[in-house]
């Protein structure tokens, strides 16, 4: 079974775990916005990243792929523009996974972070826990900005546990 964990956001990532091994991690593919300044999720590149990764073993066609996405929402104090952008990003990710007809679960941060032993917004804790669980990928989580990668790994790891009823 292939578990795919997605940490939504422009600095998020996608992690792939198969048979207890992190096969690879992809930073969220982004592109320049069509209008205005800034970036947005590149939907086609996201689809290709998931298809290529899952398709290596024909797992999508065999129906043995699970996608675990962090259930995100607006945060208090976040500006209107930021909230709209984050919602758009989450929507693109959800649409891509839905159009690929992949089974998916949405996990609140409180759910998977509780199992990981992480409290609040401590991004370094996510990197520490993911490196402890999967020491072979610790070098890919070494920078502060790799917190999205670490969270994607933990979402896939704990999504598998939560999907089995550990919540």
What can you see in these coordinates?
- With 167 residues, the protein is α/β, with parallel strands linked by helices.
- The two termini are 20 Å apart.
- The chain is globular.
- The protein has one domain (2-166): Ribonuclease H-like superfamily/Ribonuclease H (Nucleotidyltransferase, domain 5).
- Strand 6 (65-70), helix 3 and strand 7 form a beta-alpha-beta unit.
- The longest helix is centred in the middle third of the chain and has 20 residues, at 80-99.
- The protein has six helices and seven strands; from the N terminus they run E-E-E-E-E-H-H-E-H-E-H-H-H.
- The strands form two sheets. It has a five-stranded mixed beta sheet. Strands 4-5 form a two-stranded antiparallel sheet.
Structural features:
7 strands, two-stranded antiparallel ribbon, alpha/beta, 21% strand, 6 helices, Nucleotidyltransferase, domain 5, 167 residues, 5-stranded mixed β-sheet
Helix percent band: 40-55%
The tally of domains stands at: 1
Oligomer: single chain
Number of helices: 6
Radius of gyration: 15 Å
Query: What is the H level of CATH, i.e. the homologous superfamily?
Result: Ribonuclease H-like superfamily/Ribonuclease H
Q: Indicate the CATH topology.
A: Nucleotidyltransferase, domain 5
Number of strands: 7
